[in-house]
Write a structure and sequence with these properties.
Structural class: mainly alpha
Strand content: under 5%
Radius of gyration: 28 Å
Helix content: over 70%
Shape: elongated
Number of strands: 5
């Protein structure tokens, strides 16, 4: 290898045109091992390069430097260097070595976690995700790292900036599992339980040949969120993998028991189940969510009453919902009315509650706009799915696989038929 000084000179002289950058890329790849062996010496050379112009060369040097041991004294300087690079680097040039860019960003993420300052990594990693993506429909390896920092910093709303994207391209299955799992946790933190359930559902039902730890943890939260949101846990859909279908419940038995006791509607039995498994729920970091499940049983019991009665006294509601007194029943009913979970009025004079039908007539301007937006979104998704289907049906690897399976099926069918005549 040429000296680092000579390599830096090449970087400075070959970073203008695409042809020059392509030649530089070849030189840099030949120098990878040598750069790593001199990782501790590379920091001063970075100051000689402009990350906005010399992006590719800067990236190779920075990645080699980050692969070495970074001391506590060097950590803050390393973080500032990476932030400056991410903000000013050329997206076109990092696409030539995306694995290097990912490695640098992961080292950056590890450092902010070690220093206990995840908040400082959120904005830079968001920018890194956007520069690494070829489109907002692509799921990158950095998506899950970004969401993890949002979780650690309890900055949940920042996570929505990428969670609201429609993802159609996934490079690695593990990225999909982590993205949806962390996305579910962020939506739980924001109490967007419907969105959280959709994210966790995507983990539980994703294709897999063997069960993984991410799926197991996601199913635990899937059970809890399902109970809070709908009062029951749905059965596995047909497209769930056989690995998940056979084994998930075996690894999540305390949560399955919780769902069974919840279905009985008996508060005392549910409370006893939680007490029995409290240490397990605590070690899983799910105890707070379990307590929300317990609280939701009161609401669920009150909601059942609206399906049977037109009017009911607060004392009767307290008795049926297993609340301590009419005052506690009144507080629950008022909160549920405010949250739009039931439609009712309370007569303070005689302590009676009147239950009503949903007053929404679906003809207001706001509702019309909402329905129109939903229709437009469904049409766009339908068009996208049709395009994906067309591309898949023309994919040589897919056609080859289908052809082999069809030949095997035809042979087996012929073999079984021929045996009938032997």
């Amino acid at each position: 290898m040429e000296s680092i000084e000579v390599l830096v000179a090449h970087i400075q002289g070959l970073s203008r045109s695409p042809d020059e950058v392509s030649h530089l890329h070849s030189l840099l790849k030949q120098s990878e091992d040598a750069l790593r062996s001199h990782a501790a010496r590379l920091a001063p050379f970075l100051s000689q390069l402009d990350p906005s112009i010399h992006t590719l060369g800067y990236l190779f040097l920075l990645e080699a430097y980050s692969s070495g041991s970074i001391s506590g004294e060097e950590a803050s300087g390393f973080l500032l260097t990476v932030v400056e690079f991410i903000n000013s680097c050329s997206a076109e040039q990092i696409q030539l070595a995306p694995e290097k860019f990912i490695s640098v960003c992961k080292s950056f993420k590890d450092q902010v976690m070690q220093l206990g300052v995840p908040m400082q990594g959120i904005a830079p990693l968001w920018m890194a995700v956007r520069k690494l993506q070829t489109s907002t429909e692509q799921l990158t390896t950095l998506h899950s790292d970004y969401l993890l920092l949002c979780l650690l910093a309890k900055c949940y709303k920042a996570g929505l900036s990428i969670l609201d994207d429609d993802i159609f391209e996934v490079d690695h299955p593990r990225d999909h599992f982590l993205y949806c799992y962390y996305g579910g946790m962020i939506n739980i933190g924001l109490k967007r339980f419907e969105k959280a359930l959709a994210c966790l559902h995507n983990v539980v039902t994703a294709p897999m040949t063997t069960l993984n730890a991410i799926c197991v943890e996601a199913y635990k939260k899937y059970i809890l969120v399902s109970l809070i949101l709908n009062g029951q846990v749905p059965s596995f859909p047909k497209y769930t993998s056989s690995a998940a279908h056979r084994n998930l419940k075996n690894y999540t038995q305390p949560y399955v028991d919780l769902a069974n006791f919840y279905a009985s509607g008996k508060f005392s039995e549910l409370e006893a189940c939680i007490q029995t498994n409290q240490e397990k729920f605590l070690s899983d970091s799910n105890l707070g969510l379990v307590k929300q499940v317990l609280s939701s049983l009161y609401k669920r019991n009150i909601q059942r009453l609206t399906q049977t009665y037109l009017t009911l006294s607060l004392q009767d509601i307290a008795n049926v919902a297993q609340l301590n007194n009419p005052k506690e029943a009144e507080m629950h009913v008022l909160q549920m009315i405010q949250d739009g979970e039931i439609f009712a009025t309370i007569n303070q004079k005689d302590g009676m509650v009147s239950f009503h039908e949903d007053p929404e007539q679906y003809k207001s301007c706001g509702m019309t706009e909402h329905i129109d937006f939903s229709i437009q979104r469904l049409m766009a998704l339908s068009k996208k799915l049709s395009s994906l289907d067309d591309n898949l049906s023309c994919d040589p690897q897919y056609l080859s696989k289908v052809g082999k399976e069809r030949q095997k099926f035809d042979f087996d069918e012929f073999d079984s038929v021929s045996h009938k005549f032997m």
